[in-house]
Amino acid sequence: MAQLRFSALKDVLDRVPVNPNRPSADISTMFASDVFDLPKMEKYLPREAYNAVGRAMFEGTTISRQIADQVATGLKAWAIERGVTHYTHWFHPLTDSTAEKHDAFIEHGEHGRLLESFSGNLLVQQEPDASSFPSGGIRNTFEARGYTAWDVSSPAFIIGSTLCIPTVFVSYTGEALDYKTPLLKALSALDRAAVDVCHYFDKDVKKVIATLGVEQEYFLIDEALFYARPDMVLADRTLMGHQSAKDQQLADHYFGSIPERVMCFMKDFEYEAYRLGIPVKTRHNEVAPNQFECAPLYEEANLAVDHNQLLMDVMKRVARRHKFRVLFHEKPFAGINGSGKHCNWSLATDTGVNLLSPGKNPKSNLQFLTFLVNVLKTVNDHNELLRASVINETNSYRLGGHEAPPAIISVFLGTYLTGMLESIARKVTDRKMSPALKTELKLGIGKIPEILLDNTDRNRTSPFAFTGNRFEFRAVGSSANCSAPMIVLNSALASQLVRFREEVDALIKKGRKKDEAIFAILKNYILETERIRFEGDGYSAEWQEEAVARGLSGQVSVPESLKGYLLTQSKEVLISTGVFSDKELMSRVEVEYEKFVKKVQIEARVLGDLAINHIVPVAVRYMTLLLDNVRGLKEVFGGIEYERLAGTRKELIVNTSDHITMIKKLVNEMIEERKKANIIDSLFERALAYERNVKPYLSEIRYHIDKLEQTVDNEMWPLPKYRELLFTR
Ligand code: ADP
Ligand code: MG
Q1: What's the gap in Å between 275 CA and the centre of ligand 1?
Q2: In this predicted structure, what is the pLDDT of residue 3?
């Protein structure tokens, strides 16, 4: 690095990796030390309260005010012993992050003194002034009241000197204003519906939970360089930047040895995660330079979502300690891989069975196939709803891009399972099954486990892939709160399972044997879901064409895709399961349109500013330098010799000038388009205008800037380049 254009770069070179000296050997002893989990409850709560909380966590029973008081007292005692001074209700508003408002544990005591206090009332419910959170028109500012209420199923934890209590966030009139409320409802609908279906196979099942393991991809950027890029600071991504000559072509970063400075960061955040009870397990380099991934052990879905949100928060904080910035944006750099948040999802019973894992005998395998095929049916019937749950402004740059699943939601099953389903579809008929056929089917499905083990062929290009004992929903974006897809997936499956049970019961009533009835309905589903099953290369152009022929939409428009929430069949599912009211659903979509508009607006403003006050002045200066040079040539050489020498310089001047002219023209046009869009009343129409008329300018303007970056004197260029951002570590 002989040439240092930036004091920023010099800062980086002066950096010494922070060696956190974290103990990493005894994870199990420090695990959850900052969490008020069951062992701590046992120690700090009276027996009665401990049992009541246990029942509330596992059976969903409610907690009386008197028990809440006991819990609050125990919780306060534990927290204060650990130096905690404040508490907060911690919730997931419809923004991209979590929210908290801290209150000290104090009240007036006698003689003007203060005393530490925390009651059941404060634990159970709070009323943050919440007028500034997005609500999609549910809450008017003049009646800004919303309240937060304790989610007993996710334990309280300590961050610094603050006790955090996971809560739901609802308006005073009862509408959900957060992600957690509908998620809890979806999970409970799924529980009821899945238990009913399990009873065909095992009467002992009392509870079914969704399990979730979230792989989190992210980029790390040196803080000094980050601050030198206003686009990253304000819009979370680079809005300009010519590709680095080398980036990920050699695939030499993926699974490579983790750079020391990065390793220090990872150990440090993992240490904090363990203390918060987040079971982070896997760490590795991802495909793009400076891109990494971490994944925890899977947990119950609501807890896993809380933990993922918390983990992102911890990572952001710890990164700053290491002079890094962690980028969760789905596409911070054009031309290289973006980041996802792969949601590994399955269903587990209280009897210890993974319902999406092949079992040991024909009976458990029929149960496995039942759930597997019902998931297929769900993805088939609610294809557009699923896309709506993952699409947003930031993820739109990733879906269908470099190494990211396309916007077409298809399922990958692997050759073996596909063959198995096809054979069931072929063999099962409407007639009564012969004993020979029954034996054949049973033998066939009895063999699943051993064969599946050899058939873990992975298809990395599929947005929704079966991976042996779970599905992996890969279309979810890295910055997302994965509640949104989890709400949709679990409630749609819940509704599907109810339907399945009704259809099978109807056949049983008509005199069919249970297994036969199940096979018959599964056969119908197998045939119906053919269109969403795809084993080929999801990145290929042929698939785009074929998907259209199959009637699958590859809609990439964000506002159009979001309408997937409002389709008749989507509403049926989300409203009939009690997950949303009509009003709540509508408000959620409005919030999404609004977020989309605001994000494009911010990007457009930032790009406009940078183009005009960073790029154009530098390009003009460079052009002046060239002009001086040409003038000098004329003075010194003159005549034919001058013509020969000045030719290429003149060309460069014209090119530079053309790019400058275009940038100015396009920025002005973009501003005009924004003005037109801003006065459109309908949020949907405004979002469409932003997408169609404003967003295209981002890449057009960028094109000219990136061209200038290639020719303007490197020493003058005002922004760190891709090669610096991506290779400083
Ligand atoms: P990959 O090979 O897909 O990159 P990783 O090891 O990075 O796999 O992540 C796999 C994730 O899947 C982990 O979070 C893991 O806990 C999770 N997982 C495994 N089994 C289940 C399951 N039954 N339900 C939900 N998640 C699961
Ligand atoms: Mg992984």
Answers
A1: 21
A2: 47
